[in-house]
Structures are given as structure tokens and as C-alpha cells.
Amino acid sequence: PAERKGACQIAQYLKDQGVTLGAVFDEGGGPSIEKGEAFDGVRVTLFVAEKGSVDYEIFAETDGGHSMMPGRSTALGLVARAITSIEEHPLPYRLTPLTVLSFQAQARLETGRKAEVLADPEAHFDELVKLAEEDKFLDAELHTTFAATMASGSGQSNVLPIRASAVVNSRLLQGDTIESVENYIRSLLPEGAQVRHLNGNNPTPDIVPGGRVFELIEAIEKDRLGENLVMVPELLPGGTDSRNYVGICDNVYRYTGIISNGNAGPAHGINEYYDVANAPSSIAFYMEFLKRY
Fold this sequence. Notes:
Layout: H1 6-16, E1 24-29, E2 31-35, E3 40-50, E4 52-61, E5 65-66, H2 75-88, H3 97-106, H4 112-119, H5 125-132, H6 136-142, E6 145-152, E7 159-160, E8 163-172, H7 178-188, E9 193-201, H8 212-225, E10 229-236, E11 252-255, H9 279-292
């Protein structure tokens, strides 16, 4: 259970003691050197909020039996139809105050029509939707997502499963909740399929960055990387332990200070890795932050 995890217990203990924190840092963004037609400088990606991460179990139960007499459907067939229904009915795209701010900052890094769309995403929402349909990261920023990641059924090919299930991991956009998404999934299920919430957390608050800590990060990065720098606050589609500290800290940033050189393998993919040569840049950032804070 989440309440038994270390970060959750630490945050609760500090809260019980009346402690508040000035700043919290976790994995996430960092500076990257951009050399493009629209922008030649440094992009500082700073994740200031994160989506919720929730597991839902989709399941069906039948009498089971021998595969030579399956009837009209099996428990696993019901679950498969349920997953298909969920994938074919995604929640609609929408903007939040943070994503609007993020797109406006990113517009400075683009050129042409894309820059115009990002500079005013509300006025060009239909075009933004078309961009999101071709861009996985942009897609994740604009709505609550569903990913079927685990499934189970019978232990033998000739045995009908008495119970079949699949786990759908959902990443909740600000404005959605564990309960509202569960109800939405339930509305999509075929007769005989069910859903239950397994675990997870709601999104962190959708905040607009600013203040002393944000300005200090910007000042440090300008001093070490140059004045031609764009701060890009973003919503993290993934999750970090820092979410547990939101209740006792107003400055929670998913930011490592690592200067990216593009030398890294895909997260949770084949050959995931990170270049250790990048580590000193993170150490240098944190040392400077502690000196100036």
C-alpha cells in the first residue's frame, strides 16, 4: 500500500511535526542544448506537477470448463472486448493552466505554424489536437491516458478460465480523479466485465511556477549556461516520490540539473541506460543551489 512506502511515511511524519520544506527536488527535467532554426540556446525543462498514476483491474468471472465447449464467449474474451472498448474511447483532449503556460514557453523554441499554435493553444486547439495525435508526449500532456499492461487467464490452453483479468494503468490529468475515471471505465465495459481500483494516487495540484526558488534555478542555469535560455515548465506524465511532499512544500520540482547530451536509452525500454559522464553537471547544479539558497 502507498501509505507504507518510505517517502509517504517521511512526509507524513514531517507534517505531524509541523515541518514545512523550502524546496524538494526529484528526478525529471534538466537543461538541454538546442541548435535549431528557431532557437539556438538552452532549453530548461522543469516539471512542476505530475499526473496521477492509478491501476485498475478489468476482470470477468465464468464457470470455466473445457475449451471444446466455450459457448459464446470466455472470461478472457470478455476482458479482451473490455480493453478494446477502453482503447477505442479515450478521454477527450483538454487544456489546463499549466499546459497552456508550457506550450507558450515551447513556442519560443519552434518556428512556423507550430510556433503559432503553441503560442495560443486555446485559439488553435483543433490544430493542437492534430499535433497530439502524432506525438506521444503531447498526447500524454492533454488527457488522461489508458495503457493495458498485464493480463492473466487460464493456466492451460484447453481449460477455460474461471477468472480472467487485465491491469490498465491510467495516468490522470489534473481535473480527473480516481473515482471519476473508474466510473468512466465502467461505462465502457461490455456486460459481464467489471472494474475495480487496485492502487494509485490522484494528480498533484496544477500549479503555475514562480517565486524565489524558480527564479533561483533560472539564475543558476543562466550563470553556467548563458543568458540565451528558455524556462519551460511542464507536466510530468510519469510519477515520482516528490508527490508525497506537496502538502508540506510549495516548491516541488522534478529537476536534476543534468545537462542532456541525448546519450540515453529509452525509459523502461530495451537497453535503458544513462551516460555517467552527465552526472557531474547535476552535482554542480545542486552544490550551487545549496550555496545560494
